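Bumping with the actual sequence this time:
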Amino acid sequence: MNHEGHKGHEGRGERAEIVASAAIDAGLKVHKALGPGLLESAYEHCLAHELLERGMSVERQLLLPITYGLITLDAGYRLDLVIDHVVIIEIKAVDAVSARHHAQLMTYLKLSGIHLGLLMNFNVLLFKQGLKRMIN
């Protein structure tokens, strides 16, 4: 968790907004190029490439352990993409995003200490229909 004080959180929040905006733009570009119907992994690879091309730090399939009492467990949770350490992107390629998908991203935000997440479902006709911004 960030312990830099109020000003540190403010700067981190501003950076997260800039990163989120760039990630949405990159997602739109990937969706325009590929369209719906592919596997999540294809969108993940292309989105990561697009964000790297924009000079961002991209971590893929980042392990997210769970702390329970005094132990840390690898429960198999992995973050699809973490951008510049300030935004989580959860990628889907499903007919409809469910409440479970929203809960999944919210859990990832809580466990990671990252405050901003984007749920991107690429299996839609218009990219904005598959986009959900979430804040912890």
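The tokens above came from a reply further down the thread. The chain has three helices and seven strands.
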